[in-house]
């Protein structure tokens, strides 16, 4: 081992879902939106003035921050933006989770939380979901250094009702509570309504799913002005200009085109509800999903084998080889046609 | 103070240069390129297929990594990319500077180094430049936890010859040595030629200056495969997808258009050399710059007052209110016309 290697931060990184390069495929493995972004996003991109590229972008990304603030009826000083909600969450861990006590999150959840805790050397404890994959609120009333959970949860898709979220936030006034709402636009109730009431609540959202912009990496946090100020201080101690010019321009249009947003998310919700019926008919069981995916298990068919068989036919879903969930598949909601092809395959497979 | 605030990471953030929103201005304050990016960058952007935006970008940004590797004749596994060289440097601090001993860098240098050290709680020591603003190599032969310096240095523009860099790298086999080459394309000698010889050397570059792409935030590190592997592990523990789809597509074209790159950087070098002559005629003194800026002082005119007077006429340069350099102005090289307007002003001011 070379000398310098003794001082390397050793980590076990997060593994993102596969991005297969095959042309003819059905990609239901990374919770992307099956529909393209608003046509106004394309217009804005194609009209971009190229000379400006030589200049640094606005470090505060003010146009984007203001568009988000307008949309959610908060002050621009309550909005923090980043390179996808992953960047926003990483910055939030670094900013708010500096206690000696462990932060807490569910045992089954977004698998990046323990990775961030590890890279920043933050102690953590996981709290087991109930047998029905629900968060037990009492678990979040113990002493801790901070709390984070997704709502709806991933990869289960299950929602914690707003009253439960408020109970957790209210019980923990002395730590930051982060609600990761990556999937909230598909039918769950947002905790944004609580931001005015609690100064320790941070709500994190993204354009990757409901606004079809995973390729552009745009996420944000909304919270009390003071919290956002702390986040910005850390961001400006890391990278002054995180949002490039194309992200700012495209992000503004994506958030402004509310009509398109409502259309696509309603289409996905409708497809999800039909998918639930069809999966049920085939004998699958799953928590009731309020997200753009369904976390399904079949009492007779092994998930891992099914995952492999689907993959062979170029139908990609996500499988997690982890305790408690190793017999589940996370299936992203695609177009009706894509889901139809999935069902055809499943019917054949189970015949 | 609210309870959660006790656990907030308190930092004093980096202050980026002003981005004035005035239309008619001469902007010589943030070392941007006065020429637009290659026309091929625009073409590629305008031809982007919008449906792909709904999907995550390639987490490895392979197209961009390969284009950079091709250009510099290294293996793709020796290239790490990030959201500007600031992101690359932040990740490098986090990855390699984990010793209890202080890292070292010059007292007059890029003012983000101490900010990164502070945010990650890395001990550091600065080594004074000589009176002529040169790095004293002997200073970098003491025990340390890592070394970083820019070449050419910022904001001085002075170059450390390659033999000096090699002496520092060779004297420090047990720590990572980072050479920050943000401005190297304007005439300094790159340390890339040493990467094959030393496994602890990391060379960091950017598209922001010489490739006119500050607005897109694209930077990279080149080093030993193992170093790049460690960097990637930390990056994948922070944000899987840092480079968005537009960055990857535009970055590839910017690096491939070598003809345009050579043209613009030669134009800037020529303007810089003329600028040196004219500044000298006006009585300014400055270290010999190998960058796209000149760090100039005048024995008779106070830098701060000159800075304010220029600003009033919408000519923006950079002034640092810091020990040893508080009578200097950092003047970015613009077009010949822009520099002409600067000289006109200076001649009048000094009449």
TrEMBL record, chains A, B:
<feature type="modified residue" description="N6-(pyridoxal phosphate)lysine">
    <location>
        <position position="209"/>
    </location>
</feature>
<keyword id="KW-0368">Histidine biosynthesis</keyword>
<dbReference type="Pfam" id="PF00155">
    <property type="entry name" value="Aminotran_1_2"/>
</dbReference>
<dbReference type="InterPro" id="IPR005861">
    <property type="entry name" value="HisP_aminotrans"/>
</dbReference>
<keyword id="KW-0808">Transferase</keyword>
<dbReference type="GO" id="GO:0000105">
    <property type="term" value="P:L-histidine biosynthetic process"/>
</dbReference>
<feature type="domain" description="Aminotransferase class I/classII large">
    <location>
        <begin position="23"/>
        <end position="345"/>
    </location>
</feature>
<dbReference type="InterPro" id="IPR001917">
    <property type="entry name" value="Aminotrans_II_pyridoxalP_BS"/>
</dbReference>
<dbReference type="GO" id="GO:0030170">
    <property type="term" value="F:pyridoxal phosphate binding"/>
</dbReference>
<dbReference type="InterPro" id="IPR004839">
    <property type="entry name" value="Aminotransferase_I/II_large"/>
</dbReference>
<dbReference type="GO" id="GO:0004400">
    <property type="term" value="F:histidinol-phosphate transaminase activity"/>
</dbReference>
<comment type="similarity">
    <text>Belongs to the class-II pyridoxal-phosphate-dependent aminotransferase family. Histidinol-phosphate aminotransferase subfamily.</text>
</comment>
<protein>
    <recommendedName>
        <fullName>Histidinol-phosphate aminotransferase</fullName>
        <ecNumber>2.6.1.9</ecNumber>
    </recommendedName>
</protein>
<comment type="subunit">
    <text>Homodimer.</text>
</comment>
<keyword id="KW-0663">Pyridoxal phosphate</keyword>
<dbReference type="InterPro" id="IPR015422">
    <property type="entry name" value="PyrdxlP-dep_Trfase_small"/>
</dbReference>
<keyword id="KW-0028">Amino-acid biosynthesis</keyword>
<keyword id="KW-0032">Aminotransferase</keyword>
<comment type="pathway">
    <text>Amino-acid biosynthesis; L-histidine biosynthesis; L-histidine from 5-phospho-alpha-D-ribose 1-diphosphate: step 7/9.</text>
</comment>
<dbReference type="InterPro" id="IPR015424">
    <property type="entry name" value="PyrdxlP-dep_Trfase"/>
</dbReference>
<dbReference type="InterPro" id="IPR015421">
    <property type="entry name" value="PyrdxlP-dep_Trfase_major"/>
</dbReference>
């Amino acid at each position: 081992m070379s000398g310098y290697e003794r001082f390397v931060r050793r980590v076990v990184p997060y593994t993102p879902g596969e991005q297969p390069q095959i042309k003819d495929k059905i990609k239901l493995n990374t919770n992307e939106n099956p529909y393209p972004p608003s046509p106004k996003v394309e217009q804005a991109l194609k009209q971009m003035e190229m000379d400006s590229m030589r200049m640094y972008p606005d470090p505060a990304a003010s146009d984007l921050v203001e568009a988000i603030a307008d949309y959610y009826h908060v002050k621009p000083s309550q909005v923090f933006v980043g390179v996808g909600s992953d960047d926003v969450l990483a910055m939030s861990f670094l900013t708010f989770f500096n206690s000696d006590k462990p932060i807490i999150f569910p045992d089954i959840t977004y698998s990046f939380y323990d990775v961030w805790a590890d890279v920043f050397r933050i102690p953590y404890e996981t709290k087991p979901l109930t047998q029905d994959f629900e968060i037990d609120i009492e678990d979040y009333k113990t002493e801790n250094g901070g709390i984070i959970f997704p709502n709806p949860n991933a990869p289960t898709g299950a929602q914690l009702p707003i009253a439960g979220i408020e109970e957790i936030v209210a019980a923990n006034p002395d730590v930051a509570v982060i609600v990761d709402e990556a999937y909230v636009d598909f039918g769950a109730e947002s905790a944004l309504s609580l931001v005015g009431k609690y100064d320790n609540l941070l709500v994190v959202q993204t354009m990757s799913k409901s606004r079809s912009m995973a390729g552009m990496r745009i996420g944000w946090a909304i919270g009390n002005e003071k919290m956002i100020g702390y986040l910005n201080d850390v961001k400006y101690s890391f990278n002054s200009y995180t949002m490039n010019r194309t992200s700012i321009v495209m992000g503004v249009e994506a958030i402004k085109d509310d009509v398109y947003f409502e259309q696509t998310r309603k289409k996905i919700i409708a497809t999800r509800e039909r998918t639930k019926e069809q999966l049920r008919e085939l004998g699958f069981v799953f928590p009731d999903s309020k997200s753009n995916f369904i976390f399904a298990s079949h009492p007779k068919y092994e998930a891992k084998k099914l995952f492999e068989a689907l993959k062979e036919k170029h139908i990609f879903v996500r499988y997690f080889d982890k305790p408690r969930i190793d017999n589940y598949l996370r299936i992203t909601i695609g177009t009706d046609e894509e889901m139809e092809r999935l069902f055809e395959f499943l019917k054949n497979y189970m015949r």
